Amino acid sequence: MTQDLIILNQSGNQALQQTGGVGLGSLMFKAKPQLLELVHKSSRQENVKYGEFRNIGTNEHLGTKIRVVLLAVPQEQREWFRDPTVFTKENKACFSLDGVHPHAHAADPPAMNCANCPKGNVNWNTWRKTKNPKDLPPCGAYYHLLLADRNTQAVYYLNVKGKSVQPFKNAMEQQMSGLLAKLLANVRAENKTRGYTYVTSTQSFVPTPGFVLPEGKAQQPQEPLPSIYDISFDIFSHQKDGGPFQMGFNNFAYIKPEDRAEFGNLYAELSQQRQAAQEVPNEEAEADEAVSEAPASTEAPKGEVLPQITI
Asked: Judging by DSSP bridges, how do beta strands 34-38 and 155-160 pair with one another?
């Protein structure tokens, strides 16, 4: 090796040490979302703190409150345990990741689709007549969330189950949807002044027919539509009279304008990872087959059952 080549290599190594970034673009080193759980008293895991949110993969506890941003529309999912008192992978007879069809890996699906499954919602008609707890649907619905920590931008999956389902639906349909509607109204008003009209059917803006720009002015670009990651909120743990821990949802607020681009980039990066790896969204939820948390509750609803979330 010549002296010139030695000098060249030394120079290159020094530059590499200064810039860094080796391997950061590889899918192998891209961190996938971790699965969070709310630790219940029935947890079989060791060294856990009841009532706190826990990273199942690392056993890191995040406390009794987390501030988050949604990165995907909440997905309704379902699960059925043969023995409703035994929450193990072996006892999980059927599950669905889309709330429509049993998953291909379900051990013993009772039907081809969830809508007319004898273990599912069709049982509500019987229960309304008998009010017998035995007639409640043994297959419970819950919501699967993809979210990011507001401060660290760490990405997680979280399943909202049992008594937490109804408060979650209420929070999404009232507080979350209310803030999104206000954001949309502001964007529509701003884009109207720029010469764009909102088309509800396509959820997009088109040039306003007959719009005339002031003399000497260039037309400004459209303001983008709001997204669910423009809003952050708290998920907290609580219990009543020593009962089971459940989740609450409050303090919904707009993300600071300077932070919205960061969560938008995070959303785009996750989408690119899935496309590059040819992953199906929510397929990673199969990690929950380990069943370290209590299943979705099938207890009778209190008051009106609200329709499915639409965001």
From this structure: parallel
